[in-house]
Amino acid sequence: MPPSKNPLTLIVATTPIPTPTTTTTTIQNAAAAAAAPTLRLGIGLNGTLPWPRIKTDMSFFARITSRPPASHTTNAILMGRKTYDSIPATLRPLVKRVNTVVTRSVDDVRQRVEGDLQRRREKEEAKKREEEEKEEKKKEGVQGQALGLGQVQSSPGQGQTQGQTDAVVCAGLEEAIETLEATHGKEGRLGQMFVIGGAEIYAAALATQKTRAVRIVMTFVEKLAYEQDRTQVFECDTFFPVDQELLNETNGWKRVSAQEVSEWVGETVTGEWIVDGEVRVKMVGYERTN
């Protein structure tokens, strides 16, 4: 089967964890490995992120996953049950996206997610009514001042759909993708598909590369002190399925330009380090080549 036209884009924040290789068989090789350790990519600790809140990365994630490619479409975010539960209860499901949860306990999780969705939609509707009331009062005020100058025109883009909040629960990643493409996709409402974790879901997404294009938009996160002292790392117990050294052409990956990443996400990405408090972050992109 040829790759799908609608690629999977993995969105992940990682931090480098130097780890001596365990494949050496001699003292000389062991010494060489210690001098050039494998860089594992840490993504989690105790079911949450290994680092404190990083505003730069969180706002980047929110913007690119909720920004649809067309006004009538909605992006989908695919995640495991633990990742869904790691979202603050007051924020889930995340708005303006199709929250797609993959779990073995479909019935129990679906009931809970549907309850979350109902409460979220009620909040959205209340907020929408409030905004409409404010807009109506604003129009009345402008019209009152515009005596005889004609009707007030809507501003560009006003009233356009910018993504609908929805939720889907499936037993596996392939089932989730098929469900999205058979429902939202068939109706022409499916935007981009973003995989947001955790490790098992990332691994499953990487395994789909024979049937569809796979991209990675990765945020590197480092302590500022890491540049001078490689022991200054975040503690992690969960890792991205592919080590940093393996994201190269030999292993079927291409590091793409900042311009290409910008085209993927719909905003300018420089590929340069950005300092945010005690850490620095850099957004980069990789594309599967085989």
Automatic annotation (TrEMBL):
Region (Disordered): 116-163
Enzyme class: oxidoreductase
GO molecular function: dihydrofolate reductase activity; NADP binding
Compositional bias annotation for Basic and acidic residues: 116-141
Gene3D superfamilies assigned: Dihydrofolate Reductase, subunit A (3.40.430.10)
Positions of the DHFR domain: 7-288
Pathway(s) it belongs to: Cofactor biosynthesis; tetrahydrofolate biosynthesis; 5,6,7,8-tetrahydrofolate from 7,8-dihydrofolate: step 1/1
Record key words, sorted: NADP, One-carbon metabolism, Oxidoreductase
Enzyme Commission (EC) number: 1.5.1.3
Keyword Oxidoreductase among record annotations: yes
Domain of life assignment: Eukaryota
Skewed-composition ranges (Low complexity): 142-163
PROSITE patterns for the chain: DHFR_1 (PS00075), DHFR_2 (PS51330)
Any single biological process term in GO: one-carbon metabolic process
GO cellular component, one term: mitochondrion
Name by which UniProt lists this protein: Dihydrofolate reductase
Organism: Aspergillus saccharolyticus JOP 1030-1
